[in-house]
UniProtKB/TrEMBL annotation:
It holds the Pfam family Peptidase_M14. It comes from Leptobacterium flavescens. GO terms for biological process: proteolysis. SUPFAM superfamilies: Zn-dependent exopeptidases. This is DUF2817 domain-containing protein. Residues 9-322 form the Peptidase M14 domain.
Length: 379
């Protein structure tokens, strides 16, 4: 795909009605009637709490794709990208028209509307839907399985977010986008089905490297048949896990949504315009695996009293996401204290002793961090 032309016009596809991290059902419902290329918008089920689960159908081709977002309710970046994608299909571009001519695309924008409203990973019964693929104990899980069995997709896109802790390989590059071709067995056998997923991922990676070089990772492929991706892949349907991660300074994930949008278009373009047989899957393994080497903040050479002795240590801080009304707050907490030379940070403060006197390690609590991180930033 000519990524330049799509990128130049991204503002035309950007869904301005969706921004930030809190994307409940009530924020997407006003957008349902605006998409002229959508063939059908159906209610396909209800959540534990009685909220509607919807599915878009768009395109009239023979190649069927099923994608779903917000299986985990607090993972909303891909939902924003999905509505950017719908705007793209409403455009008059030759590429969007050719994709819709070749593909029939089914999109469940929010599979877990209760979790989206509460901004939690789990559903209202406190079940992780991505560990319920075998038991199908939850209504949301059964809705997805029914859609899968009815549509009989040729490809599945499982859309998620990942935490800010992930980096690419051993580098200081954040994993802004990560992919996975899920395993089908404990041995992680590279089957013909997995190879097709791998080939599509390689295509997306080649494209993204032009935009965010070094910021694409490969997610861990440990096998768990209770996960939806592993289940669908083992049923012979090429399935791709998309993980929307951190772009520097982008805690609202507006830049990341853009890269997920490009990846979705690239994958659909590949499916539409050439045969995916897995023969070009080997480049998938060129993508470095994710590691977990990031903190949100590191205070370097920070004076802390430990065992009644003042030491200079590094303090690794992570943010915990907390809903406040329709806003998401990022509350800092101390994750690690010690020599953290092996970790990277999205923001570092060096020689903090110039700003603050030593304190006991036990005093490094949330209130202290909230009071003082502003001081660090101002200095």
């Amino acid at each position: 795909m000519e990524t330049g032309s799509i990128a130049e016009n991204y503002n035309n596809f950007f869904e301005a009605g969706l921004s930030g991290r809190y994307i409940p059902l009530s924020r997407i419902e006003p957008l349902f009637g605006k998409h002229k290329k959508v063939i059908a918008l159906d209610k396909i089920g209800s959540s534990v709490g009685g909220l509607d689960i919807h599915k878009f159908k768009i395109g009239h081709g023979k190649k069927k794709i099923l994608m779903w977002s917000q299986m985990h309710g607090n993972e909303s970046t891909t939902t924003k990208a999905v509505f950017d994608l719908l705007n793209f299909f409403d455009s008059d571009s030759d590429l969007s028209a050719s994709i819709l001519n070749e593909c029939e695309i089914h999109i469940i924008p929010i599979l877990n509307p209760d979790g989206a409203m509460a901004y939690t990973r789990i559903n209202k019964n406190e079940v992780d839907l991505n560990r319920d693929a075998q038991d199908l104990s939850q209504p949301e899980s059964r809705v997805l399985r029914s859609a899968f069995e009815e549509i009989k997709p040729d490809y599945c896109f499982n859309l998620h977010d990942q935490r800010t802790i992930f980096n690419v390989g051993k580098t200081d590059k954040p994993a802004t986008v990560s992919f996975l071709s899920p395993a089908e067995d404990q041995e992680r056998t590279v089957t013909s089905t997995r190879k097709k997923s791998m080939e599509l991922i390689a295509d997306m990676n080649n494209m993204l490297q032009q935009m965010i070089p070094g910021q694409v990772g490969r997610y861990d492929d440990s096998f768990n048949i209770n996960c939806v991706g592993d289940t669908f892949q083992s049923m012979g349907v090429p399935t791709i896990l998309f993980e929307a991660g951190h772009f520097p300074g982008d805690y609202k994930r507006e830049r990341t949504r853009e890269y997920i949008f490009y990846a979705l278009v690239e994958a659909l373009n590949s499916i539409s315009h050439r045969k995916i047989n897995g023969e070009n899957s080997e480049n998938y393994f060129d993508i470095p695996e994710n590691d977990k080497l990031f903190c949100d903040i590191i205070l370097r050479d920070f004076p802390v009293v430990r065992a009644e002795k003042m030491e200079k240590v590094d303090v690794g801080i992570l943010f915990k996401e907390k809903r406040s009304g329709e806003n998401i707050l990022f509350e800092p907490y101390v994750e690690k204290v010690g020599s953290l030379h092996y970790l990277y940070a999205h923001k570092e403060f060096i020689r903090c002793d110039r700003l603050i006197s030593p304190l006991k390690e036990s005093d490094l609590d949330t209130k202290w961090l909230e009071d003082n991180l502003r001081i660090f930033q101002e200095n």
